[in-house]
């Protein structure tokens, strides 16, 4: 089973990397971009067929290690 975790800064948290990318895109003529937020994606290969168990385990991983829940949000997709 595969788990895909997307981690991104919470709304209101300054994203200097996103601001720099937005400025660069604007400078390159991509003027239709309203905002850019940079995050990270973590792909986990899990040794289980139980989707509920996998989701609970990955949530615990996120809360413990993979995301800084003070300033970051995350989403989990189990396939």
What would you note in describing this structure?
Helices cover 35% and strands 28% of the residues. It is of the alpha+beta class. It has one domain: Phosphoribosylformylglycinamidine synthase subunit PurS (Mth169, Chain: A, 2-Layer Sandwich), CATH 3.30.1280.10. The mean pLDDT is 97. The protein has a three-stranded antiparallel sheet, covered by helices on one side. The chain has helices spanning 16-27, 51-66, and strands at residues 2-9, 39-45, 72-78. It contains two helices and three strands, in the order βαβαβ.
Strand proportion, as a percent range, falls in 25-35%
Task: State the CATH topology.
Answer: Mth169, Chain: A
Question: If you compute it from the alpha carbons, what radius of gyration comes out, rounded to the nearest whole angstrom?
Answer: 16 Å
- Which geometry do the CA atoms define? elongated
Question: Could you tell me how far the N terminus lies from the C terminus, measured between alpha carbons in angstroms?
Answer: 6 Å
> Helix/strand/pairing class, anyone?
alpha+beta
H/E order of the elements? EHEHE
CATH class type: Alpha Beta
Roughly what is the average pLDDT, rounded to an integer?
A: 97
Using the 3D structure, state the CATH architecture. Answer: 2-Layer Sandwich
- Provide the spatial order of strands within the biggest beta sheet: 2-1-3
Secondary structure topology:
Blueprint (H helix, E strand, L loop, with lengths): L1 E8 L6 H12 L11 E7 L5 H16 L5 E7 L1
Antiparallel strand pairs: 1-2, 1-3
């Amino acid at each position: 089973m595969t788990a895909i975790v997307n981690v991104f800064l919470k709304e209101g948290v300054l994203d200097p990397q996103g601001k720099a990318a937005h400025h660069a895109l604007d400078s390159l003529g991509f003027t239709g971009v309203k905002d850019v937020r940079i995050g990270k994606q973590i792909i986990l290969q899990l040794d289980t067929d139980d989707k509920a168990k996998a989701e609970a385990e990955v949530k615990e991983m996120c809360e413990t290690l993979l995301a800084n829940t003070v300033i970051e949000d995350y989403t989990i997709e189990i396939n």
